[in-house]
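Question (not urgent): is this output format expected?
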Amino acid sequence: MNRQVQVHLLPALFEPQDVEGGIAVIIDILRASTTIVHALANGARRIIPCSEVDEAQQIADGQPAESVLLGGEREGVLIEGFDLDNNPFAYKHDVVQDKTIVFTTSNGTKALLRSAGAARILIGAFVNLESLVTVLAADSRPIHLVCAGTKGKITVEDSLCAGAIVDRLLTVTGVSESDWTDDQLRLALNLYRCESATSESFRAAMRSGYGGRNCMRLGFEAQIERAGTCNLFPIVPEYNHVTRAIERGPLELP
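Got this back:
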């Protein structure tokens, strides 16, 4: 059976109602998606996404102080008064175990909240690629791969990951590539196939895009390398519409 799969290279390129009834996969490789997977894999209880700093602080103030951490960034760096930034290496087991993390970032959390009408919202990254594809392949609903971008601009790293997901879905579902005619999907798929031809070209692509250049400017080269590493964690974080939090998931088994 042909699966409906679409890539949205920016949140602004779809309307919230377009994803209703489907599965939205939030892709913000540098760095929100990668960080969320790390945090939950390392024992965080849940992550509450917020679009604004003030909102995050208000939500955190309503939680028991010993059980909550404020995490996120603005302009790529730690927000004043927050406990953690958006560095996946910072979300270690001894820091986040059993904690609720109230989380706001410049791009990723906003992409998630724009997708709130989807039946399921999953967090996708290279670090959980294979597990994500397994969950997607087992669910028959339309798939929307939502790239967060950076400051309203399309980014190479998010597009690469969307292309990698499409490439793996083609393999595991047996769908003919000619059945998926969405132009944004084909752009992402072709980019991934071109830039992943060698590990060197893939790493260069991760560093040279708009998001990668921002991270390099801030001295985050190790984080770029980490974000481009596949299949580190066998989890698929999922947004719980009832609690309005991202949990380890999957919440709904096929």
